[in-house]
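Usage example:
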Amino acid sequence: QKEVEQNSGPLSVPEGAIASLNCTYSDRGSQSFFWYRQYSGKSPELIMFIYSNGDKEDGRFTAQLNKASQYVSLLIRDSQPSDSATYLCAVKGAGGGNKLTFGTGTQLKVEL
Amino acid sequence: GAVVSQHPSWVICKSGTSVKIECRSLDFQATTMFWYRQFPKQSLMLMATSNEGSKATYEQGVEKDKFLINHASLTLSTLTVTSAHPEDSSFYICSAYEGTETQYFGPGTRLLVL
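Running the assembly step on the lines above writes:
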């Protein structure tokens, strides 16, 4: 079982719709959860992080965490073509050292 | 926000040569930096953790004698790919830990070994 799992996609949504990206993790002791966006040919950029159960909102983005289900998601409201990218879920484990384990990413396509 | 730079952004070299990549945190001090490698259409794979003033910690399967890491100051870490071969061609990305929760990534270095 992979430590951090994401559906590779592509996930296609129409412009203006809500995009929902999901991630599951295997280490129950994981502490912090991050969403990064990576455009083709570029390095990842941080969207947001979450470490408490529930929702965390930042502009059009909402991260949701359910530690009991070992599940974290990212919602993108009012999706725009510029949101088309690969979204990487990353998890900081219980072992410390600030290492992140990345999922393989979900490719999002926002269509006009 | 925290800014991390990498140099060079692109490098083409002949097989057998060594290549040095620099990673700098521009507006914060980074006691810890990380080096990743990403092959096309794959996710980031952590190569090593670089701690200022001490030896790097390499992930399983990464040859420490081939990928030399030096973190001589709180704002600079370097990765040297020694005796590079075509299979080392990849996208190398560093990140710097800014002390709270977050790693910030540099723009990456594309290495092509001919």
